[in-house]
Design goal:
By secondary structure, the protein is α/β, with parallel strands linked by helices. The protein contains 22 helices and 16 strands. The protein has a domain of 225 residues: Rossmann fold, CATH 3.40.50. Bound molecules: pyridoxal-5'-phosphate. Pyridoxal-5'-phosphate binds next to helix 12.
Length: 475
């Protein structure tokens, strides 16, 4: 399968775009056409384990990786006891017409592990084939950094330099990252906030000579490898819900998915699953107070906000005001026309706003996404109410999803809420919601008490350059 830029031109195959999701013309890598699964194709996937299903689904996109090799990569990503649940992604009916899709059973207790664990395997494979190395440079305010570190730790051809804002992460987040003792993981705590960290990354990544000399790269949410790995659990969840449905009724059995959203990566994978033939009725997008995407799907106006105008909320992994994957969805919305997409993004750069209301209306049945916004008190109330009625405790991101899910329930259509993190990561908020302190489990206590390995650094580009030059892997 060939990959093209959303703004025109070809980019090569899956392994080529795995290392660089951004096209030279500023567009994003997308497959030339989306594969389609027939009813029979989907039925044949039913008996497969999660890693086997991942091989089949990712294999539709990664046609340049031989099947046996791909099967080894998915077994490495989703095997070996890295995920707490045997089934990898448990699908649980919790009553109240809601089904929880457990995406946070991985090593960092958040859904980013689902894609990142596969990407770690796939990167090592591609780099070994090409005899090259990759030094990942990133900035994190929490989840993404730790998922990347846990996926890349101990690998031979990859090294991670992860900047985090000193004193601004929770004890749990710090422990999850800084307790890694692997030599190829470099935690750098910068004296500054998350934007300062991100600016340092941007400055180094835009110095093309430095970038090339040190084989610098990123594993951010626009990486198509991550998007492809996320499609797998939409297929998995539909299969598990329909296991109990009469075989004759399955083909037309629709489910809806509610997706706590930030960079539009997770829900984009759901859009692709639906486009490939999985019977998805509604995709329900949940925003927190940073509700740029909710505004887009309600009004057709996309108006990204600056970092200064992005609020720090109690569902911090959704504090995004410029959704980096939205361009891929808009590309489909505009009839997969690269010229129209380039023109739309050009207009966005000029005016900081685009209006796609007419296109959203025209394609409502095909691409329809409904949306909503939650506030801090909504999250607290949803966590409390669901706990009371179902006995299940959810984290604040999943609470965003559950709130908007409940507003969109239809009789006879299962509503699947993607659980994107475990409540243990947000003990303070759970205490606020449930009125009682949650005792950390033994695993969490051990994590919090483990020795930490982190380098402290001022907000200083030159010092960062020197550190990277001294520690980067060389081909
Ligand atoms: C990253 C993240 C999200 C948002 O996912 P996107 O793909 O950026 O839309 C939601 N919840 C949690 C816990 C996350 O880590």
């Amino acid at each position: 399968m060939q990959y093209i830029s959303t703004r025109g031109g070809t980019l090569g195959q899956y392994c080529d775009v795995l290392l660089e999701g951004l096209a030279p013309n500023g567009g994003l890598a997308v497959p030339e056409h989306l594969p389609r699964l027939s009813v029979d194709d989907i039925e044949r996937l039913r008996p497969l384990s999660y890693p086997e299903l991942a091989t089949e689904i990712i294999g539709l996109f990664a046609t340049d990786i031989p099947r046996d090799d791909l099967a080894r990569l998915t077994a490495g990503a989703y095997g070996g006891g890295k995920f707490r649940a045997d089934e990898i992604v448990p699908v649980t009916d919790i009553g109240e017409q809601l089904t929880l899709v457990g995406l946070s059973e991985g090593p960092t207790l958040a859904f980013k592990d689902m894609a990142m664990q596969f990407l770690g395997e796939a990167l090592e494979y591609v780099l070994a084939q090409r005899g090259s190395v990759l030094n990942v440079l990133g900035a994190t305010s929490g989840d993404t950094g730790s998922a990347a570190e846990h996926a890349l730790r101990g690998r031979e051809r990859v090294c991670v330099f992860m900047l985090s804002p000193q004193g601004r992460m929770s004890a749990f987040q710090r422990a999850q990252m800084y307790s890694l003792q692997d030599e190829n993981v470099h935690n750098i705590a910068v004296e500054g906030n998350f934007d300062d960290c991100q600016n340092l990354v941007k400055r180094l990544a835009s110095d093309l000579d430095f970038k090339r000399e040190h084989s610098l790269g990123a594993v951010n949410s626009i990486n198509f490898g991550r998007i492809s790995a996320q499609i797998v659990y939409y297929v998995w969840a539909w299969l598990r819900v329909t296991d109990n449905v009469d075989a004759a009724d399955r083909a037309s059995y629709e489910v809806s998915f509610a997706v706590p959203s930030g960079n539009f990566g997770n829900i984009l994978s759901g859009h692709y699953a639906r486009s490939m033939g999985i019977p998805i009725r509604k995709l329900v997008l949940a925003s927190n107070e940073n509700n740029v995407l909710d505004e887009f799907f309600r009004t057709g106006h996309y108006r990204p906000r600056s970092a200064e105008n992005t609020l720090a909320t109690s569902s911090p992994s959704m504090d995004v005001s410029r959704a980096s994957n939205l361009e891929r969805f808009v590309f489909d919305l505009l009839g997969r026309d690269p010229e129209r997409t380039a023109a739309a993004w050009h207009e966005l750069e000029e005016r900081d706003e685009i209006n796609l209301a007419a296109e959203l209306d025209r394609f409502a049945s095909e691409f329809g996404i409904v949306s909503g916004t939650s506030t801090h008190s909504d999250r607290i109330e949803t966590i409390r109410d669901l706990h009371e009625k179902t006995g299940v405790t959810i984290d604040p991101h999943t609470a965003d999803g559950a709130l908007i899910a409940r507003a969109n329930i239809e009789t006879g259509v299962p509503m699947l809420v993607l659980e994107t993190a475990k409540p243990a990561k947000f003990a303070d908020l759970i205490t606020e919601a449930l009125g009682a302190a949650v005792e950390p489990d033994a695993e969490t206590q051990a994590l919090l008490g483990a020795p930490q390995r982190v380098v402290k650094m001022p907000d200083d580009e030159q010092q960062l350059r020197t550190y990277i030059s001294e520690h980067a892997l060389r081909a």
